[in-house]
């Protein structure tokens, strides 16, 4: 049976007064005045309309069902005596002649009030996600997501990109995270893997003669959740361009993203092309992060030399970084909170002192600097009233800790952080290789498919740790939206690049057979990127948790509490795919 309606619950206006109409939706609530008078709110996908119950017959029908039941109401539109400017239909109401129950809510009590669902425990919200999504404030984020994705798709089409869907069942590939594996029924002991990214397929498309590819690509990684990362499944605006350079990719992204952010974002201004380019080493030195928030204008200075031999233990034989904040009038309580938050986030301490209006060093570690006051003032360029935050440790530790301190000081400052804008930048010139913290051996720093700057000559003749890659990250407001690269399309250069990390030609052929073989038949230079759709929408909507903009997200433990996944399966299903479960007590 197809339910009919003449109007939605946000359509009826004064021009409809006197008309007989049919509306359908969820019975949200009723304000009772007497046994035969009440004001019922009916809500559908589009809005809310008031229905005036004026007879005992109609009230009996309403009393026979619980809130959130679905109803069809046929009646006459009339002007409201008490109008509601907050509703699109606030000038009118409907006097029902017929109320039909379409779907009963079986429960007297709901797990939470629909319009207050965001105040409920997250696991409760996710368990009853179908109720949570009825909340207009929750639903509007999913509607906005659909609009943004459609806009991104249209912009890519207009720029000549062809949308191609790549396989979901593929082979396991070392992409840097754990795979989700799918056992094969027809090939005992062998597995498919869900793609961590369409990386190899999109590069093979370039070798296949397609010039510009994109898709809103689902990606699957067995990772732990974070506020800005959903475990399990996520989506990215995946794109690749043949015969393209790094700058070609930049120009496309700079044309596509800012208008979308400005059109839909909580902030209405975004960086204009070209975005600022920051070398990786500069980003770490000046901002303490490879994803700097450029809304904050504070910069990190090196204070190692001037702080040497000051007698403060944590600075001895360590790199010291300083952040100077002028006119920082925070209380001691605020300063202590910032230092405590730095330690929570990094595991390392932050220190501080001030230059007061009398040109004296005060507070924090100032007593260790009394004998070096003039050198400190000169080295850091201090003026009366300046606050100085400090970090120390090995170089990378000092940098990263200073990066967190810089961000917290920027957030706490009234004058050093721009408001209401999206600040984009490119982080470029990443190292091709690094020494692994755990292995102590040379490893790829980022994407192993990146083209080394200098090509074969660099691989043959330069110190591997000094070789840079055509690798770049897109950053917005301190959030990394994507990594991308000019790809290594030359089989000989690829073999040499992998040799430096201890993998020979046979290893490359075994791990990436299709892509390697495709490149042996004449591959074009190509480059690409894949901004995360979920993270973009999180920034656009101003949400702090990525789960707010995903229709059916997993919880922090990678569980779908609504559907009950992951779940046990029947023994027959395991036998069909040749799987035997061996769980120890420690695994439980």
From TrEMBL:
Q: What does this protein do?
A: Catalyzes the attachment of L-aspartate to tRNA(Asp) in a two-step reaction: L-aspartate is first activated by ATP to form Asp-AMP and then transferred to the acceptor end of tRNA(Asp).
Q: Which InterPro entries match?
A: Aa-tRNA-synt_II, aa-tRNA-synth_II, aa-tRNA-synth_II/BPL/LPL, Asp-tRNA-ligase_1, Asp-tRNA-ligase_1_N, Asp/Asn-tRNA-synth_IIb, AspRS_core, GAD-like_sf
Q: Which GO terms describe its biological process?
A: aspartyl-tRNA aminoacylation
Q: Which UniProt keywords apply?
A: Aminoacyl-tRNA synthetase, ATP-binding, Cytoplasm, Ligase, Nucleotide-binding, Protein biosynthesis
A Gene Ontology term for the protein's cellular component: cytoplasm
Segment forming the signal sequence: none
Q: EC number(s) of the enzyme?
A: 6.1.1.12
Could you say which protein family the record assigns here?
Belongs to the class-II aminoacyl-tRNA synthetase family. Type 1 subfamily.
Q: Which PROSITE patterns does this chain map to?
A: AA_TRNA_LIGASE_II
Tell me which stretches of the chain form a coiled coil: none
Q: Which CDD domains match?
A: AspRS_core, EcAspRS_like_N
User: Under which main EC class is this enzyme filed?
Assistant: ligase
Q: Which GO terms describe its molecular function?
A: aspartate-tRNA ligase activity; ATP binding; catalytic activity, acting on a protein; nucleic acid binding; transferase activity
Spell out the subunit comment: Homodimer.
What reaction is this protein's catalytic activity? tRNA(Asp) + L-aspartate + ATP = L-aspartyl-tRNA(Asp) + AMP + diphosphate
Residues of the Aminoacyl-transfer RNA synthetases class-II family profile domain: 144-551
Q: Which domain of life is it from?
A: Bacteria
Annotated region (Aspartate) at: 199-202
Binding of L-aspartate, residues = 175, 221, 446, 487
Identify this protein by name: Aspartate--tRNA ligase
Sites binding ATP sit at: 221-223, 480, 532-535
